[in-house]
Design a protein that fits this description.
mainly alpha; Arc Repressor Mutant, subunit A; 2 domains; 3-stranded antiparallel beta sheet; 3 strands; about 70% helix; transcription regulation; HTH-GbsR_regulator; DNA binding; DNA-binding transcription factor activity; HTH_MarR-typ
Amino acid sequence: MELTPIAERFILHWGEMGSRWGVNRTVAQIHALLYLLGRPVAADEIADTLGVARSNVSTSLKELQAWRLAKVVHVRGDRRDHFETSTDVWELFKLIVEGRRQREIDPTLTMLRDSLMNPDMASESRETEQRIRDTLQFIETLTTWSDEMLRLKPDTLMKTLGLGAKISRVVRRKSP
């Protein structure tokens, strides 16, 4: 399949952004391709389109499946596995936030809580203990807020974000 210049630019940029987010470039490019096409695509077609090795595509698709960002679908009359992703940007955002939380935030919360419960904490300075408590409280507050936001329907979330931006502008104007 031949990509248009805009599609190619989008896919290449998404790959660059993926590596900045700590995601393999090819994984991000495959996700971008599936997102733009909005239809099931066979792995060999992905490899040909992006010019990457079939083994790299297989590994990348497994990673996308682990993040729940791609799934296997079957196309009538074709025995090969095909892959697709959601074209709903909010659904993708939620999946990414949930995945990052499980991999990054939850282990950090566990470590902070365990540190505060650890008998060795008694030998730490008050400042160290307070910084750990402050960090825990900050992350818990952010995760509680993000959980609430992600429970909202997309249109309600957009209105809430817009209202939050308006409140922020008003507060900034009133600040000395």
